[in-house]
Amino acid sequence: MGNEALLQLEGVECRYADQVITTEIHFVLREGEIACLLGPSGCGKTTLLRTLAGFAPVSQGRIQLGKSVIAAPDYQCPPEKRRIGMVFQDYALFPHLDVRTNIAFGLQKSTLNQVQIQARVDELLAVTGLQALAQRYPHELSGGQQQRVALARALAPQPQLILLDEPFSNLDVELRRHLGQEVRSILKQLNMSAILVTHDQQEAFAMADQVGVLYQQKLQQWDTPFNLYHEPANRFVATFIGQGSFIAGTLLSHESVETELGVIVGNRAYPWQAGTCVDVLLRPDDFVLAPENGVPAVIKYKQFAGSSTLYGLRLASGTCLEALFNSHAEYECGQSIGIQVRAEHLILFAQEAKCE
Length: 356
Fold this sequence. Notes:
GO terms for molecular function: ABC-type ferric iron transporter activity; ATP binding; ATP hydrolysis activity. The protein has helices spanning 45-53, 99-105, 114-127, 143-155, 173-189, 201-207, 225-230, 235-240; strands at 5-16, 19-30, 34-38, 60-65, 68-72, 75-76, 84-87, 161-165, 193-198, 210-215, 218-223, 245-253, 256-259, 262-265, 277-282, 287-289, 295-304, 308-315, 320-326, 336-341, 347-350. It is α+β, with helices and mostly antiparallel strands. Strand 10 (210-215) and strand 11 (218-223) form a beta hairpin. The model has no long low-confidence stretch (mean pLDDT 92).
């Protein structure tokens, strides 16, 4: 993976008429990286993707691709000159053209001759595993096969960047997972940079090197999936990414906090004074069973998930938590079990109120 910055957004704002859709968007995508824009419905993910493609203008800031500025308030590079490929949600394949001709369509305005075009199409058929389907028409293909044709067509002109707008939303869950890994493998094989829009966190985590979480018009955090989960920048990211529960605590030192589950020590230092009231974020996998010396918790509900079971727990104080344990042992609703926190990380947010 290259270290050179390929795409840079600096203070980008997008509007529809007088309505601000996204604002103060800053991020850098490096060569060969796959990124994902993630967030709740209406947060501006697709608008930002359309702005990158050139289908919507920039009202503030600028977008730079390679060494060229492609969008600013006073300049809009046409979409066809941006060297950006787009894979649409509905694939947008031509129904009257076979797979080979669909892929070749994006090369018709290129400087390649017919021999070179066919060689490029052959290369992409091989990369995407579509050689045996080259003569078929879109209606003769499965959803996953159509998706690969759409990707191959977008890759054909050798763009610098590929944009994918919720590309797997029309597929069933298992096929989405499989195709996501397939598409990632194809992009990595070609060292192709890409930005994906999705509302599916698992899809984002499985495919992306960097994930940008959008909320209330702004980019809340641009980071690796690991850091988003273990070091969320704010409460929204903490609650939006993965599952988790907050419990109240009192800071004992920069790296430890006292809670009703005992003293929790982490590997991150916080700047607040001892005695500061905090909320501690605990993930379901931060808990372990401790029958002998654990804090008692009553099981309120459970969700079996094969290798593991998610339990909804209530402490004596009324605090509710979710804990994930392997499914070798089974516990029933209403049963009391002992739990402990076992987590190296410590995710804290200061409370506004003073501790009593």
